[in-house]
Amino acid sequence: MVNITTSIKLYTKMGAELMEFSNIGKLLP
């Protein structure tokens, strides 16, 4: 079973990357 703390860090990192991609998409025409 995956460590809960590790999975939370992983999801947080993925979420941050997705937010960055969405922000970049907003800047593009």
Task: List the keywords.
single chain; 29 residues; mainly alpha
Can you offer a commentary on this structure?
With 29 residues, the protein is mostly helical. It has one domain (1-29). Helix content is 83%, strand content 0%. It has 1 helix and no strands. The protein starts with a helix and ends with a helix. The model has no long low-confidence stretch (mean pLDDT 86).
Outline the secondary-structure elements:
Elements: H1 4-27
Query: How much is the radius of gyration in Å?
Result: 13 Å
Distance between the termini: 44 Å
Our estimate of the beta-strand percent is under 5%
**Can you give the mean pLDDT?**
86
Q: Give the helices and strands as they follow along the chain.
A: H
The shape, in one word, is rod-shaped
- Give a short account of the largest sheet: none
Number of strands: 0
The total count of helices amounts to 1
Number of discrete domains = 1
Helix percent band: over 70%
> Which structural class matches the secondary elements?
mainly alpha
Low-confidence stretches: none
